């Protein structure tokens, strides 16, 4: 187990370095510092202004090779700062990136966590229900609804829900955020509802497939021959075995709860990491964008390792060899 | 006078096919008394497994039991409401399957699976159930039974797994044990052990055994009576001595002849020409006639009925009927 | 040469390519059976997809009218199906005779079945033209990405060694970066145009299929007949082309259909961020968003684009599910 963990950590380190390299190529070679400066200052700005801006924002060193003092290049700077989480300032408004991202984590979590939990509970229970009635019209109806729900763009869900529940029925405010818990719930209701509607289709299909596959296994036949009721089979035998593949998918999502959602936060005015990212895109703030992609990659890698570990713990065949 | 544990009368099981529903089990009759062992023999695809599954109404969809009567320990299985059926499963009759690896739940300890089988049919405390599970494990010959209760299926060898399966089947003290090819997936030496175990269990508890197999060697070891199946129908039944020693049906004779151990060294191995027909493509008349060395005029036209022979043996064959008549 | 001529040539090439491919596999029982089964299961969805494709094709073939003076825009077949100079001044409701605000009479009263947008353009025409963008995004991107993924995945899986290590490293790094953000970053770096968007989508999209192709190749490499071919001295390239790739084709088809809708939906989100392709439904939806808060409500823009988007995605999803079921390796083996 320990050797395995060490191997995974080594993989993680290599991948992080690879990601940083890719980011460097993307943000410093494909899009040159001159391009970035021009986007920030203006297309027609004279070179002197661009150079000044580049100096202010730390883009003035040679990118890969510095003949005067090797090692004092943007490449090395980039790696050093990212690995030490020293993110510097935004290209757009010069505010410290790190602090800004940190402040966005709270609001993001405020709605991703309820969405995650409710989505899980709803998804699994509905899928279990449908799988219990597999091959009947309930199953077919459920599958049809799932495909329909999956085929609607999230944009449309947002527009629709904002319009119907926010404007027509006036049940919830269309957008906005408040830190005090009682009021926060009202603001978070719509984004959570949209998130649920948008995700339920795919979840249903995935969970249902897992449940139905497990239901056709031989040990289910043995349980039935013992005298187990169909309900007990579904709820104890099938669910237990299905949790293993389901768990791996679920654990993967947990790190991303911090990252928020680009669409939902932006439409519903939640000041989380997602809307910070959207602002960065709209303002051509490459520095912030770099950091956000890096952080998200880290979250992914953490998620992968957590998934591997949880799989090892959950499946006795893997745990006990 | 032993009680009658199993009585099957005119069982028909159908599956959908290209030309409508076909009967993969076509009017099968079986009887079994307490303490007896009946072997249901046939090649793959003859319908013997489906017959076994239908006894506890475990036929998988889209299969269906279309007709017949099944009585286990006096209860009409096909007429039972679901709760009573569940009670019958495990208590009236229990089943052991062919593949122990996949037939055991991989994420639950084997002990817990035995306990579940116990507690589904008896109101006992968890501790009492666990104790009984340990006893059952000892009874089926699992060494160090207490410790093994907490093992998972993948930690046990093939033979151990099958013993665990048998323990699960015995948990509610069934009157009938249905074993569907219980040793096919095991090594030969383990096979012998499992067969010995089954014989001991029968002797001690008076449990009846329905053994499904394609291996005539096992039949010889275990069975009191034999029923031979071909293409969904029974073709010969009788005591073990008579069916194996004095087989009358050409198919049974062909099966016995093709066992390599019996053939003289150096001679060609005997075989039954042709291959088993698939369901839905049964030949007309007697289903064995295209491969039968004794086929004659009525065979392709008329489905033969039973010809009663001595001492309870019977065969379904025109040639045999003709012999008996003369 | 002007752009539209290139596009016309491309369309002709595409049609030719599809016809040749269909001709070549018409004897292959596996694909013929699969095709028939697909038509049997999902005739409606297939018809929808065909319809959308027809619209897309019609909108891709364009030429300039030779008459008149001054520079004229090339007009596509689809545009020519509508009356010339079909544009009004501003909003009008579906089938209306007058403008929405101000009640000025329209140039083509009652002819705009789905109304007009803020610039007076016919909404039905715009919705139909969106099909071209959608099929471009979903189809063309895959046409680039999938062969690339096959190349990398099969090469890595078959050759092993350092090539495998490099490709796995690439795949892992790209996979670790969040798809949407990576897409956005790429477009911001490459510039905002349809070609760049397709390239970005292709780069981010090939990763998971390359992984799959590599995994399957690893399995196929160990198959007995491949080993036999190697032992007989058959060249590796020939083995790959004759034995490995054809066995991956069913995965190619499944992946193509299943990722199609994901790509189109991604483009919609990109449009909302201002990074999408001109003329897409996503752009229509983005522009129409504010119209819902007007009083009286302007709904036809959003509805038309949403319905068009939903229709294609649903049809492709249904076809995709059917394709996956039909080409499932288990059922393939039974049918073989």
Summarize the SSE layout with pairings.
The complex is a heterotrimer of chains A (321), B (326) and C (336).
Chain A: H1 2-30, H2 33-41, H3 47-56, H4 74-83, H5 97-132, H6 137-150, H7 154-168, H8 181-215, H9 218-226, H10 230-253, H11 262-267, H12 273-282, H13 286-314, H14 316-319
Chain B: E1 4-17, E2 20-33, E3 37-41, H1 48-55, E4 64-72, E5 75-76, H2 82-91, E6 93-96, H3 100-103, H4 110-119, H5 126-139, H6 145-148, H7 158-170, E7 176-180, H8 188-205, E8 208-213, H9 216-222, E9 225-230, E10 233-239, H10 240-245, H11 250-257, E11 307-308, E12 314-315, H12 318-325
Parallel strand pairs in B: 3-8, 3-9, 6-7, 7-8
Antiparallel strand pairs in B: 1-2, 1-4, 4-5, 9-10, 10-12, 11-12
Chain C: H1 3-24, H2 29-41, H3 43-60, E1 62-63, E2 75-76, H4 77-80, H5 123-159, H6 161-176, H7 179-190, H8 194-221, H9 224-231, H10 236-272, H11 281-288, H12 300-326, H13 329-335
Antiparallel strand pairs in C: 1-2
Helix pairs in contact in C: 2-12, 3-5, 3-12, 5-6, 5-8, 5-10, 5-12, 6-8, 7-8, 8-10, 10-11, 10-12, 11-12
Distance between the termini of chain B: 36 Å
By DSSP, the count of extended strands of chain A is 0
Main β-sheet of chain B: number of strands, strand sense, barrel status? 8 strands, mixed
What proportion of the residues of chain B is helical, as a percent range? Answer: 25-40%
Strand pairing plus helix content of chain A: what structural class?
mainly alpha
Tally of contiguous helical segments of chain B: 12
**Percent of residues of chain A in helical segments?**
over 70%
Radius of gyration of chain A: 25 Å
Largest sheet of chain A: none
Give the overall shape of chain A, derived from the CA principal axes: globular
User: What is the count of helical runs of chain A?
Assistant: 14
- What's the average pLDDT of chain A? 84
Number of strands of chain B: 12
**Which protein chains are joined by the largest interface, and how many residues does each one contribute?**
A-C, 39 and 40 residues
Coarse morphology of chain B? globular
The helix/strand order of chain A is HHHHHHHHHHHHHH
Point out poorly predicted stretches of chain A: none
Oligomer kind: heterotrimer
Biggest sheet strand line-up of chain B? 6-7-8-3-9-10-12-11
């Amino acid at each position: 187990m320990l050797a395995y963990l060490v191997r995974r950590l080594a993989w993680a380190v290599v991948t992080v370095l690879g990601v940083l390299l890719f980011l460097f190529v993307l943000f410093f070679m494909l899009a040159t510092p001159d391009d970035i400066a021009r986007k920030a200052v203006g297309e027609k700005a004279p070179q002197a202004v661009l150079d000044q801006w580049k100096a202010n924002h730390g883009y003035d060193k040679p990118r890969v090779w510095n003949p005067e003092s090797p090692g004092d290049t943007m490449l090395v700077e980039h790696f050093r700062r990212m690995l030490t989480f020293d993110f510097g300032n935004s290209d757009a408004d010069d505010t410290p990136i790190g602090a800004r991202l940190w402040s966005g984590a709270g609001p993001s979590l405020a709605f991703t966590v309820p969405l995650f939990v409710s989505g899980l509970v709803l998804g699994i229970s509905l899928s279990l229900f449908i799988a219990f009635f597999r091959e009947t019209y309930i199953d077919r109806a459920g599958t049809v609804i799932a495909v329909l729900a999956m085929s609607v763009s999230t944009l449309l869900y947002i527009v629709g829900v904002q319009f119907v529940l926010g404007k027509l029925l006036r049940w919830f405010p269309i957008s906005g955020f408040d830190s005090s818990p009682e009021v926060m719930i009202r603001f978070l209701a719509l984004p959570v509802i949209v998130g649920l509607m948008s995700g339920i289709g795919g979840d249903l299909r995935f969970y249902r497939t897992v449940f139905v596959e497990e239901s056709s296994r031989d040990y289910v036949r043995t349980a039935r021959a013992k005298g187990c009721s169909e309900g007990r089979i579904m709820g104890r035998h099938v669910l237990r075995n299905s949790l293993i593949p389901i768990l791996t998918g679920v654990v993967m999502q947990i790190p991303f709860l911090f990252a928020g959602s680009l669409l939902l936060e932006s439409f519903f005015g939640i000041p989380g990491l997602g809307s910070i990212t959207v602002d960065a895109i709209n303002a051509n703030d490459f520095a912030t964008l770099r950091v956000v992609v890096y952080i998200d990659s880290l979250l992914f890698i953490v998620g992968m390792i957590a998934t591997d570990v949880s799989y090892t713990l959950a499946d006795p065949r893997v745990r006990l060899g | 006078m032993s009680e009658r544990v199993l009585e099957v009368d005119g069982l028909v099981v159908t599956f959908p096919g290209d030309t409508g529903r076909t009967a993969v089990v076509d009017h099968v009759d079986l009887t079994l008394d307490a303490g007896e062992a009946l072997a249901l023999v046939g090649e793959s695809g003859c319908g013997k497994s489906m017959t076994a599954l239908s006894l506890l109404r475990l036929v998988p969809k889209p299969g269906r039991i279309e007709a017949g009567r099944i009585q286990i320990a006096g209860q009409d299985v096909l007429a039972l409401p679901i709760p009573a059926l569940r009670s019958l499963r495990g208590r009236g009759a229990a089943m052991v399957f062919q593949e122990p690896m996949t037939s055991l739940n991989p994420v639950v300890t084997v002990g817990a699976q035995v306990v579940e089988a116990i507690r589904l049919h008896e109101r006992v405390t968890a501790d009492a159930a666990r104790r009984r599970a340990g006893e059952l494990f000892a009874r089926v010959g699992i060494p160090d039974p207490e410790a093994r209760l907490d093992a998972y299926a993948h930690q046990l060898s093939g033979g151990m797994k099958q013993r665990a399966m048998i323990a699960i089947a015995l948990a509610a003290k069934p009157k009938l044990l249905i074993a569907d090819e219980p040793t096919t997936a095991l090594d030969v030496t383990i096979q012998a052990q499992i067969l010995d175990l089954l014989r001991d269990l029968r002797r001690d508890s008076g449990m009846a055994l329905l053994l499904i197999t394609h291996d005539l060697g096992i039949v010889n070891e275990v069975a009191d009576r034999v029923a031979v199946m071909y293409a969904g129908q029974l073709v010969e039944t009788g005591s073990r001595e008579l069916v194996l020693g004095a087989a009358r049906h050409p198919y049974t004779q062909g099966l016995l002849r093709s066992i390599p151990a019996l053939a003289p060294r150096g001679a060609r191995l005997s075989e039954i020409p042709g291959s088993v027909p698939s369901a839905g493509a049964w030949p007309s008349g007697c289903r064995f006639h295209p491969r039968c060395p004794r086929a004659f005029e009525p065979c392709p036209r008329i489905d033969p009925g039973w010809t009663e022979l001595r001492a309870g043996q019977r065969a379904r064959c025109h040639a045999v009927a003709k012999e008996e008549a003369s | 040469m002007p752009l539209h001529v290139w596009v016309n040539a491309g369309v002709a090439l595409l049609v030719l390519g599809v016809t040749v491919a269909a001709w070549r596999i018409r004897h292959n029982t596996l694909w013929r059976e699969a095709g028939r089964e697909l038509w049997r299961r999902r005739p409606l969805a297939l018809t929808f997809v065909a319809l959308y494709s027809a619209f897309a094709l019609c909108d891709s073939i364009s030429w300039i009218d030779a008459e008149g003076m001054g520079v004229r825009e090339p007009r596509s077949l689809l545009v020519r199906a509508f009356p010339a100079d079909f544009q009004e001044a501003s909003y009008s409701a579906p089938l209306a005779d007058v403008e929405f605000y101000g009640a000025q009479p329209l140039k083509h009263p009652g002819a705009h079945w789905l109304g007009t947008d803020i610039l007076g353009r016919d909404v039905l025409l715009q919705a139909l033209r969106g099909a071209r963008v959608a099929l471009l995004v979903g189809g063309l991107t895959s046409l680039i990405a999938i062969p690339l993924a096959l190349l990398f995945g099969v090469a890595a899986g078959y050759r092993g060694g350092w090539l495998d290590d490099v490709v796995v490293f690439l795949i892992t790094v790209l996979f670790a970066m969040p798809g949407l953000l990576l897409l956005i970053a790429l477009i911001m770096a490459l510039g905002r145009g349809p070609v760049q968007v397709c390239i970005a989508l292709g780069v981010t999209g090939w990763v998971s299929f390359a992984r799959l192709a590599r995994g399957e190749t690893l399995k196929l490499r160990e198959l007995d007949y491949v080993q036999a071919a190697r032992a007989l001295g058959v060249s590796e390239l020939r083995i790959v082309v004759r034995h490995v790739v054809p066995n991956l084709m069913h995965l190619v088809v499944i992946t193509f259909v299943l990722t199609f809708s994901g790509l189109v939906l991604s483009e919609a989100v990109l449009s909302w961020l201002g990074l999408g392709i001109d003329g897409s439904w996503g752009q229509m939806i983005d522009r129409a968003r504010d119209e819902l808060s007007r009083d009286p409500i302007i709904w036809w823009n959003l509805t038309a684009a949403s319905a068009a988007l939903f229709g294609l995605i649903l049809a492709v999803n249904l076809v995709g599910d059917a394709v996956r079921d039909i080409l499932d390796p288990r059922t393939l083996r039974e049918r073989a």
